[in-house]
Amino acid sequence: MRVVVLTGAGISAESGVPTFRDANGLWEGHRVEEVATPAAFETQPTTVQRFYDARRRALHAVVPNAGHLALAALERAFGKRLLLVTQNIDDLHERAGSSHVVHMHGELFSALCRACGERSRWEQDLVDRPACPACGASELRPDVVWFGELPYEMDRIHRALTRADLFVSIGTSGAVYPAAGFVRAAAASGARTLELNLQRSDGTDWFHDARHGPASRLVPAWVKELL
Ligand code: APR
Questions:
Q1: Among 57, 106, 182, 188, whose CB has the most other CB atoms within 10 angstroms?
Q2: Which residues does a 6 A CB cutoff place in the pocket of ligand 1?
Q3: pLDDT of 97-134, one tens digit each?
């Protein structure tokens, strides 16, 4: 059986990483749609860098929860028959033990050089324009996919969706494409589809099955069933 799992901010919520569209949906007083754009980076680079520096720093203070750990256990059992795709830019899946994670929106702990195009692992601030480890230019930006930019590894994700027997969406509001369309691509290819989310999402009606509650409870229960 081939499984594709898509995770969103909801799986990291119980680790203390705020989601985007719950409560006030504000980050450091900014709406993510206003800061996570190429235009914002051009016009107010310091604001955008500080927004991501704050989120990068916050990552050092949080730990994976039972939802992340259950998905790592699923990978140990399923190996390459599982593709874990995340919209999250935190490294909680990796710290929980998942080793093949597709970060379709990029990663906070990666910096992209606008001069040479190289990516470097980066855990410090970027606001002071440090030199690129590869070329020395002071042109590092967060290696994060902003609104209007192409998400990463879309071909690989679509291939997996067409071959999946089961597609499970965890902790995402189904508000942002292309991730919000994955359930339909999977179902069109004959996969069963399941939503695990705190509450109904914009996409709930597209799923064959839906269970609502906290990921730290729902994900371990579902993985236990599957194993
Ligand atoms: N357990 C399970 N689900 C939860 C929990 C929890 N403890 N807490 C919140 N949720 C659910 C919410 O009900 C919501 O449906 O997680 C979802 C979070 O939705 P968003 O905040 O919109 O996050 P996400 O869907 O990941 O956003 C997608 O939008 O801002 C862009 O690039 C950003 O990757 C992000 C994308």
A1: 182
A2: 8-10, 13-14, 19-22, 32, 87, 105, 171-173, 175-176, 197-199, 201, 214-215
A3: 999 999 999 999 999 999 999 999 999 999 999 999 99
